[in-house]
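Standup, Tuesday
Yesterday: got the pipeline producing structure tokens again.
Today: sanity-check two examples.
Blockers: none.

Example 1:
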Amino acid sequence: MFGIGGGEIIFIMFVVLMLFGSDKVPEIARTLGKTMAQIKHATNDIKNEIQKGAEENGFDKQSLADLTGNITAEIDKAKENLLGNTSTLTDFSNTVTSELTQVKQGLSVEENKTEVAAVAKEEEVEGPIKRQM
């Protein structure tokens, strides 16, 4: 109960008994019981008022069940559409991957051409002074 062991409950009862005395403890227990009953009664009243308001506005349990059933059916349809198109997604993924590979290869070829051109340009410099790039 509330993560409290038996020894702790006995200690709390002992402290309450020492603080309030043996003649006040039953009165405190009665007051606590009445308060708990009032809280329970108020909670039930609120619950009943909510149910009455829902029934007056046309939201009874059956219509709510139908509404949630329709929403669940729509969610299931969306899942089927998403999961049913996995082959299309796989094809798209493969196409994108192959195109990226081609672009990478093209970039590496252009990079090599640029390096060769830079080396050739350095070799063309004549005279005693070479320029550094």
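Example 2:
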Amino acid sequence: MNRMIFVNLPVQDLSASIAFYTALGFSINAHFSDETAACMVWSSEIYVMLLTHDKWRQFTKKPIAPGSTSEVMLALALDSTDAVNKMNAAAAGSGGTADVNPKQELGFMYSCSFADPDGHIWEPFWMDPAAIPQS
């Protein structure tokens, strides 16, 4: 079995969050979705589980952090700087907040950050494949 990651995120408005992530290019896996959760597919190894607050509380008793706090930033590798900019623009046009952190232009790497409607921070980035050390 391939190693996979399921990022679980508490969301206030499941329908709005589904629309947001769909606008970014995620698809929905209906087999693992219902009125309390949506499984959003980025790739065959990367999934984002959007969970209503009630559903989230079934997994942990810890409080949900308010939108003004930050605990994690999730980075997604994209194929080009243009793809990074398009995702950032899609986030801004779909209920998210673009450019929550300064853009990074390092020559071999380019990134920007946006927040989804619940304040979860994502950082799409592009890295020049020639800059990656070969092992």
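Quick observation on example 2: The mean pLDDT is 94. Residues 36 and 54 are 8 Å apart (CA to CA).
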